[in-house]
């Protein structure tokens, strides 16, 4: 039976997300979806939900929600100091929630995005087969907007299932120093060799104006950036370099076409780490290969699909 949980504190940016809205990029609609697919995948897996079921992505916090009927939840991702009725709640684990319980998250202490899954998934309306919220396009979620205090989240009460904990080896502690692997783009050779060497030798910092569209990096400006090119399709993971010489890594709410020159594409599995990078975090790029990038992404997807079937 569908019930509703009431948001008692929406926080700065809490969004309903799932695995994204695919197949609409030709219409200019971004993919969207959870930025940290590892943490979101584990939140659903801990409850036996379908892969990609809708959950909450809570950026920074604080956040609070009250459940009208009993259910199970799972919390993963950033360390948000979760509490249930005032008692500390272990992260990377699932828990039973009694009727009327208040779940609270504080400010993220490490990482930046926490994930809250509810047994059966959040039952909000779908747009093009996805419940993901893309604020720039006002699609998905509840009216295409971040959650606000007083919003009602539809869910199905389910408190009888088993409880699980993510194995320690799969629980992530987020760091402020990242190394991202890069697959060179078809425009890589258009950058002078000295510019490419400069890019790989630098340690960048995550800029505070980063968002779900792109992670902006600050460092010594790259010299001799090629001029604007004919716009073409772009996707999450692309590293664009505008005239400022400061790279931007596109994320899941990015535009679908762009004319800035592109150095390459960050491994999809590395974007999960970048999604948790706080402003000021240090980022270094290293050369990678398309073969390795694809193999790691396939491995990650097969893991969650296989584990979901077993449950």
Task: Write a structural description.
The protein has helices at 37-45, 193-201, 268-275, 290-310, and strands at 2-9, 13-17, 55-59, 63-67, 71-79, 83-84, 87-88, 93-97, 102-105, 110-118, 152-156, 177-184, 204-206, 214-218, 232-233, 238-240, 248-250, 257-258, 262-266, 282-287. It is an alpha+beta fold and 311 residues long. It has two domains: 4-170, no CATH class; 177-302, Cyclophilin-like (Cyclophilin, Beta Barrel). The strands form four sheets. The chain has a seven-stranded mixed β-barrel. It has a six-stranded antiparallel beta sheet with strand order 7-6-9-4-1-11, with no helix packed on it. A five-stranded antiparallel beta sheet has the order 2-3-10-5-8, with helices on one face. A hairpin with a 7-residue loop joins strand 13 (204-206) and strand 14 (214-218). Helix 1 packs parallel to helix 4. The relative contact order is 0.18. It comes from Microbulbifer aggregans. InterPro entries: CT_A_B (IPR003778), Cyclophilin-like_dom_sf (IPR029000), PxpC (IPR052708). Keywords: ATP-binding, Hydrolase, Nucleotide-binding.
């Amino acid at each position: 039976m569908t019930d509703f949980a009431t948001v008692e504190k929406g926080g700065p940016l809490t969004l309903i997300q799932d695995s994204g809205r695919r197949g609409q990029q030709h219409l200019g609609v971004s993919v969207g979806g959870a930025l940290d697919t590892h943490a979101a995948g584990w939140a659903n897996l801990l409850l036996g939900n379908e892969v990609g079921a809708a959950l909450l992505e809570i950026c920074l916090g604080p956040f609070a929600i009250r459940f009208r009927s009993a259910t199970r939840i799972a919390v993963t991702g950033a360390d948000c100091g979760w509490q249930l009725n005032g008692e500390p709640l272990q992260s990377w684990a699932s828990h039973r929630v009694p009727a009327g319980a208040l779940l609270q998250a504080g400010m993220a202490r490490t990482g930046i995005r926490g994930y809250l899954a509810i047994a059966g998934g959040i039952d909000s309306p779908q747009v093009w087969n996805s419940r993901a919220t893309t604020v720039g396009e006002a699609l998905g979620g509840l009216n295409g907007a971040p959650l606000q205090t007083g919003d009602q989240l539809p869910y199905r009460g389910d408190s009888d299932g088993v409880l699980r904990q993510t194995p320690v080896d799969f629980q992530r502690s987020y760091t402020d120093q990242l190394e991202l692997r890069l697959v060179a783009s078809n425009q890589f050779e258009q950058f002078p060799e000295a510019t490419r060497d400069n890019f790989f030798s630098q340690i960048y910092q995550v800029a505070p104006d980063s968002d779900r569209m792109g992670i902006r990096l600050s460092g010594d400006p790259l010299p001799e950036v090629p001029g604007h090119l004919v716009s073409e399709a772009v996707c999450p993971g692309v590293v664009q370099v505008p005239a400022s010489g400061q790279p931007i890594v596109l994320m899941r709410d990015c535009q679908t076409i762009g004319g800035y020159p592109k150095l390459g594409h960050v491994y999809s599995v590395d974007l999960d780490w970048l999604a948790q990078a706080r402003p000021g975090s240090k980022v270094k790029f290293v050369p990678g290969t398309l073969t390795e990038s694809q193999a790691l992404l396939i491995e990650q997807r097969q893991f969650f699909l296989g584990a979901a079937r077993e449950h």
